[in-house]
Amino acid sequence: MDCAALEVGAQGSQMSVRQLSITSTDLVERARVLFEELELEPMDSRIELLNEIRRELHKHSPFASEPVDCVLWVQAEDVTANDYNPNAVAPPEMKLLEHSITEDGYTQPIVAWPHNGGFEVVDGFHRHRVGRESVTVRKRVLGRLPLAVLSDSRHDRGDRIAATIRHNRARGKHQVAKMSDIVVELKRRNWNDEKIGRELGMDPDEVLRLTQITGLAEMFADQEFSTSWDLDTVDETEVKLEDEGADEDEA
After folding, report:
1. What does the pLDDT read at residue 87?
2. Cα separation of 39 and 32, whole Å?
3. In this structure, what is the dihedral angle of CA atoms 152, 158, 163, 167, given to the nearest 10 degrees?
4. What is the pLDDT averaged over residues 189-207?
5. Would 196 be classed as within a structural domain?
6. If you average pLDDT over residues 201-206, what whole number do you get?
7. Within-domain flag for 21
8. What total number of domains does the chain contain?
9. Residue 133 sits in which domain range?
10. Residue 141: which CATH number?
11. Does the residue 229 lie in any domain?
């Protein structure tokens, strides 16, 4: 290829870059003009329109497979807690979390699944609580919560439980007693030890130990135990007979 051809090729590349730059600038400017119209909408309508715009942007994003690429602001009443979270936060840490969100804002979205026309929390139960219960935070976020929504392709309760446990265990937070309850529930849903270990990040020994904790408790749950002896109620005659027996042995 001669020098003239190389020069023409270079000029063509430069033109393409300039055209792309002009197109991008034009696109952003047109979007800016459209977004200014949002200011004319009532607040709730504006938030819902922004959520729809985020969904559309998410469809065209190279990161469309990542839930955090699309954070939606959802009415707090439409977000419910799950009933299996084994993670617990002590009152001082809960107050610190509220203080953190009050001072720094929400820096992490709540992770949720679509559920019964609303959303169920997978991770972020305590962030969810702060948004609902803290007067200061609730007022600031207009009664809404920031949600990163997981794919709704896995509807099974076992899948939702596994997702919650993975989030908790990745942070090293879970309670053994509740974890054992969850393992037993997954077994009742016909999950074998291999699948439980794979989905919850456990080795076979841990799965076995957690199964045994609840298994033993359930085994004795309905058993009646005899009343322990009360020394004050022991028959004096029985004590006397035992003493006499002891004396005869010594003789």
Report:
1. 61
2. 12
3. 150
4. 81
5. yes
6. 80
7. no
8. 2
9. 40-154
10. 3.90.1530
11. no
Q: For every residue of the chain, which 3-state class applies, written as one string?
A: CCHHHHHHHHHHHHHHHHHHHHHHHHHHHHHHHHHHHHHHCCHHHHHHHHHHHHHHHHHCCCCCCCHHHCEEEEEHHHEECCCCCCCCCCHHHHHHHHHHHHHHCCCCCEEEEEECCEEEEEECHHHHHHHHHCHHHHHHCCCEEEEEECCCCCCCHHHHHHHHHHHHHHCCCCCHHHHHHHHHHHHHCCCCHHHHHHHHCCCHHHHHHHHHHHHHHHHCCCCCCCCCCCHHHCCHHHHHHHHHHHHHHHC
Q: Is the pLDDT of residue 193 over 50?
A: yes
Q: Are residues 108 and 206 in the same domain?
A: no
In this structure, which amino acid lies at residue 94? M
Strand 71-75: give its sheet, edge to edge: 71-75, 144-149, 110-115, 118-123, 79-80
Measure the CA–CA gap between 212 and 219, rounded to whole angstroms.
10
